[in-house]
Design a protein that fits this description.
Blueprint: H1 28-41, H2 49-56, H3 64-79, E1 95-101, E2 113-120, E3 123-131
Antiparallel strand pairs: 1-2, 2-3
């Protein structure tokens, strides 16, 4: 991947990632190692968090289609090595948080997702997203 052609986004917005039951299996240990490295990198690269977390969901049974998306993330990183968190001198020290949620937004299981992001000055320092659990029948 050292000499790969870079791309402008880590994952296409129209790209749908799913379980891919009929796809070709890849080495799970290698896939989990790659995802672990990318998760470590997200601490200073919030621009890849969403894409990495989407791929993270398929660590148990990774397929070739999942590995292809992970390679897209690496192609994005290769072209954006100067990106990251930056706290310029004299910038605002104001902490601001924004919540967001959707209702039944996941096309696969119709579960809702909620999330937050927190900015320190103009820099994103915390991001969280969680898919809601199914309601139990009472």
């Amino acid at each position: 991947m050292e000499n790969c052609k870079s791309i402008s986004t880590p994952m296409a917005s129209a790209l749908s990632i799913d379980k891919d039951k009929s796809g070709i299996e890849v080495d799970g240990k290698r896939y989990r190692g790659i995802i672990g490295s990318l998760l470590y990198l997200t601490k200073s690269r919030p621009d890849i968090i969403f894409s990495v977390c989407k791929c993270d969901r398929y660590q148990a049974f990774p397929k070739e289609s999942h590995l292809k998306i992970v390679k897209m993330i690496f192609r994005y990183i290769s072209g954006t090595t100067n990106f990251g968190l930056w706290y310029p001198r004299g910038s605002s020290c104001c902490l601001v948080g924004f919540p967001n949620s959707n209702f039944a937004g996941c096309k696969l299981d119709r579960k809702s997702t909620s999330g937050t992001c927190h900015l320190f000055g103009n820099s994103l320092i915390l991001w969280h997203s969680k898919k809601k659990q199914a309601l139990l029948n009472r």
